[in-house]
Amino acid sequence: MKAVWNGTVIAESNDTVVVEGNHYFPADSLSDACFQRSATTTHCPWKGDASYYTLVVDGESNVDAAWFYAEPKEAAEEIRGRVAFWKGVEVVE
After folding, report:
1. Of 13, 15, 73, 93, which has the highest C-beta tally within 10 A?
2. What is the C-alpha separation between 54 and 63, in angstroms, rounded?
3. What sign has the CA pseudo-torsion 70, 20, 77, 1?
């Protein structure tokens, strides 16, 4: 699977985990240069607290377009160390 935004592959892995229709990519599959930590956080009752990244590609930013659960709840342990995408990021085979 590949995550693509602004014409650039920002993550690629054969080992994604699908939860609620979102592919969670291993953190080591990310193109580090494209990710900037965001101050945004949200809470999911069954997954826990999510943190976000802003994507930066060719001088363009996509604010809070990637998220992860640093300390997921037990029910969501399979997504620990993984990142998912939205806001126009295409996930394709």
Report:
1. 13
2. 4
3. negative
pLDDT at 23: 98
pLDDT-derived band at 31, boundaries 50, 70, 90:
very high
Strand locations in 1-93, DSSP E?
2-5, 8-12, 17-19, 22-26, 35-44, 48-57, 60-68, 82-85, 90-92
What confidence tens digit (pLDDT) does each residue in 42-67 have? 999 999 999 999 999 999 999 999 99
**CA distance linking residue 29 with residue 16, whole number of Å:** 10
What is the distance between the alpha carbons of residues 38 and 43, in angstroms, rounded to a whole number? 15
Sheet holding 8-12, edge to edge: 8-12, 2-5, 90-92
pTM greater than 0.90? yes
Backbone phi and psi for residue 76, each to the nearest 5 degrees, phi listed first: -115, 20
